[in-house]
Predict the 3D structure of the following.
Amino acid sequence: MDGDPTPPSHSQLLGDKFTESKRQYFTPTASDSDAQPTERPTTDGNSQSPQVSISVMTPPPPVTLSSKPYDSSDFPEDMYPPENFALVSPLIYRSGMPKKRNFPFLKRLGLKSIVTLVLEEYPEQSRRFLEQNHIALYQFGVAGNKEPFADIPEPVICQALLVLMDKRCLPALIHCNRGRHRTGCLVGCLRKLQEWTNTSIFDEYRRFSAPKSRSMDQQFIELFDVRPVLEQIDPENVPDWPTISYSLQGQHH
């Protein structure tokens, strides 16, 4: 691969298939640095459907960025990682909501994308940091798995996985507010694509969500169907993970 490719726009990455859902909102594709995310609607007070919003902030043209995996020895001691920060896979990280004190640390990661699962408007100072560092923001706002009615919609997780499964978007950081439940669900579904066993997936989920692990999250991960994701992955831009290659070979034969 020559140089660092520009992260794909949301329309290139996700296609038109997902835009049919009434609960999903995308910004128009923009060619300049003034692209703004759509305003996220709220659900009707009488509805039992979970609140969902999706927006994409297109950054200015990228500069040359580092693409090497995280190595703690690279960072001075006065740099502070976000809460619950960890390496998920090569060039994919997870954490809670980054704060201003975490920005120098994140800058050293050379991120190209942030995948956030929070519903709230993204903090203005964080938006400025992303724009200044040419980092694309993919916001898939979901309410989380909370009884009795709210749950995470599978199509939204599929879309988030398509971002993570495109090497043009990497390095990437996944986060929600605390980096526990919603982030744990997305990472758990990514592990299914990587063909982890359920036992290993749940062990990882509980390690980050303790002491408040949710049985509904683990059920969501167990029942999640990876086939819609595999059907839409771009084989030319899939990350170099052997288990994913095997899955794709089986899908397209």
